[in-house]
């Protein structure tokens, strides 16, 4: 495998950003649907969740293209990372993903290290990332922990049928 290239996202990358977002979040939303049941899932997350996720990623690119970069492997876009630089000195990794066909090769950790480098270069003193505690987010947690993130706060959501 050649070395990944990290570069600023460009307009021509938008279809790849959308495709990768939908592919990467497919198992997550499938798992949530299974855990929640069809009725609750449809009420909590109406519409096409994969379309919504792709829209979020594209929207971040449209608002702040300087905070979106892609991962290329042999000239092909195989991942992306969005982030935010906040005035308080805490950078936050947002939506990010590696194409499922390329996962398990260390690209996610390399992408996160690149993002942390960009944050540090911009003067951030801390970095933050949020992810789910369910099984479908386990690969993301492993990638974050591999670059040094530690869980500080936990978040739990409760539901009940009335």
Structural notes for this entry:
With 162 residues, the protein is α+β, with helices and mostly antiparallel strands. It has a single domain (5-146), classed as 3-Layer(aba) Sandwich (Aminopeptidase), CATH 3.40.630.30. Helix content is 43%, strand content 20%. It is built from five helices and five strands. Helix 1 (14-36) crosses helix 3. It is globular, with a radius of gyration of 16 Å. The protein starts with a strand and ends in a 16-residue tail after the last helix. The relative contact order is 0.16. The mean pLDDT is 95.
What's this, in brief?
The protein is of the alpha+beta class. It has helices at residues 14-36, 38-44, 49-63, 107-121, 138-146; strands spanning 5-8, 68-73, 76-85, 90-98, 126-129. Strands 1-2-3-4-5 form a 5-stranded mixed sheet, with helices on both faces.
Blueprint of the fold:
Elements: E1 5-8, H1 14-36, H2 38-44, H3 49-63, E2 68-73, E3 76-85, E4 90-98, H4 107-121, E5 126-129, H5 138-146
Parallel strand pairs: 4-5
Antiparallel strand pairs: 1-2, 2-3, 3-4
> What top-tier CATH class fits best?
Alpha Beta
State the fourth-level CATH superfamily: Gcn5-related N-acetyltransferase (GNAT)
Task: Indicate the radius of gyration in whole angstroms.
Answer: 16 Å
Order of helices and strands: EHHHEEEHEH
Tally of strands:
5
Q: What is the CATH architecture term?
A: 3-Layer(aba) Sandwich
Say what the CATH topology is. Answer: Aminopeptidase
Total of helices: 5
Judged by helices, strands and strand pairing, the structural class is: alpha+beta
Range of strand content = 15-25%
What is the domain total for the residues?
1
Report the uncertain regions: none
By oligomeric state, this entry counts as: single chain
Give helix % range. Answer: 40-55%
């Amino acid at each position: 495998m050649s070395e990944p290239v990290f570069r600023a996202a460009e307009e021509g990358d938008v279809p790849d950003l959308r495709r990768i977002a939908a592919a990467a979040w497919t198992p997550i939303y499938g798992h949530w649907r299974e855990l929640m049941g069809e009725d609750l899932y449809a009420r909590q997350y109406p519409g096409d969740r994969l379309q919504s996720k792709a829209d979020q990623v594209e929207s971040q690119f449209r608002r702040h293209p300087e905070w979106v970069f892609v991962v290329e492997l042999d000239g092909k876009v195989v991942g992306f990372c969005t982030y935010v630089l906040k005035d308080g000195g805490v950078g936050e990794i947002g939506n990010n993903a590696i194409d499922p066909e390329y996962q398990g090769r260390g690209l996610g950790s390399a992408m996160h290290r690149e993002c942390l480098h960009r944050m540090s270069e911009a003067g951030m003193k801390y970095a933050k990332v949020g992810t789910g505690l369910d099984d479908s987010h386990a690969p993301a947690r492993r990638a974050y922990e591999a670059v040094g993130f530690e869980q500080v706060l936990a978040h739990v959501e409760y539901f009940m049928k009335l």
